[in-house]
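Fold it.
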Amino acid sequence: MKHIFVSLVIALISSIQLHSQFGSQNSGGPLTPEWAAYDVKFYNINLNINPDKQTINGWVGITAEAVSNMKEFVLDLDDRYRVTKIAWDSPIEYKELSFKHENGKIKIQLPEEVVNGKSFTIKIYYNGKPRVAENPPWDDGFIWSKTKSGEHWIGVTCQGGGADTWWPCKDHPSDEPDSALLNWTVPRNLICASNGKLRYILDNKEGTKTFSWFVSTPINNYGISIHAAPYDTIQYNYTSVTGEGIPVTIWVLPENIEKARAHCPEFLDHLRFYEELLGPYPFRADKYGVAETPYLGMEHQTIIANGYGYRDDQFGFDWLHHHELGHEWWGNMVTAKDWSDFWIHEATCGYMQTLYIEDKLENANPSAFMMNWKLWKNEQPIAPRKEMTSNEAYTNDMYSKGAYVLHTLRYYLGDEVFRKVLRRWAYPDPEMEKVTDGSQCRFATTDEFLEIAEKVSGSELDWFWEVYFRQASLPVLKAEIKNDVLYLEWKIENDLSFSVPVEVKFGNEVVKVEMREGAGSVNIPEEVEPVIDPDKWITMADVEIKI
């Protein structure tokens, strides 16, 4: 059983290494004055997707509010597209604007100075041949695949390179629209699943259909996506922990429908686990959806991509779906304000699987599972104190070391307190668990997590954060035996304070050694060899005992 789990973790970490080499563009980075000048309120995306020619064309409307006086409006869009027209769209005036599109930026000259606090709408008309993702989802672009019957099967991924790989936007994680309207036109034989709630389907004369979806809450740019294929659907009526009904729809290729019907009730079990642990599913006003995809997976908001094949691993659960569903809380509702905090999305979702395995399996040892995450390289901090791009932020450690640090935090705080911390991190105020209007969504930082953990636990934890999140090197535990006494001492780079207690096993007895001021000791019973940190709770370098 264990070797199967190891293989899954290795596969995930290998994918991360690929993910750190995003293809077409970078995303995020320092918030430039041009980005900081406005706040996006609404995206209106209207695209005709032609899989035969592998092209897209249409327009995107962007409604924003000026945060400072501005004469120029700057957006991001891959240079492979041809921008044909940009217009100022207001109830009073519709006017074409002058612009330059180069180096991945569209610089638009506004018809007048837009003063702080004023809202405005710009429409960008464009067309082109999108980048093809060669290794999705770890490479950005469109996926033009075919089903077994030869029909088109379309997808798109853009987490690392940014949504500007296929539509014009403000390509920074710190700004999300309050809502979005998504109109996708595809060949008539295809069904298009997307984010939010379906408004209508329009049958067009030219052999196409337009699927209109509305997202009623804030959404990450990279979370906006399309899934188009000759789908069948499986529908469930799921009752949330709040008592509200949530529509759950699975979009499935026809050849896999029976396999999916047998497998997908497990998805509801995953949903129940997360709701009981973290609080209600955040997007109850829209839906929960899963679409079968020609790539492994991605956390597109309310329409999770799942290409794992409707199967369980050796532990009896679909780890891919479980991980991507977790992003509805960690990533889609609670969103990293900068890529430097992106461990919040990935490490936290990774550790949710350990909790699920522990809760689901009898006699499970969570620390044994966590040992398989010890693949870190310690090349940079999990959460550096600087603004970062996606390429700079993505490392193995963001996933594996981050998850293990949460494991150590659970050990230090205790299981009950740790689970309370998780819930308040998801929903800082219990009243937030009741709302569905988008106010439940927020940006988060590593420092905010510290504040919540300290408030819930009643403990000062800044030293823990400084060692584990803000520096790359691991704590080193020095151990020495003298006169039947085991002496332990923490050695931390830059001589930082560190006082995580250490468990030591003597035969069948486990003693917790307090490490006040970074050191502690314990008497060794006769003829018993001590085992340090027997359950492997602590994120640290390998221990050597000096005798």
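Residues 1-8, 13-24 have pLDDT under 50 and may be disordered.
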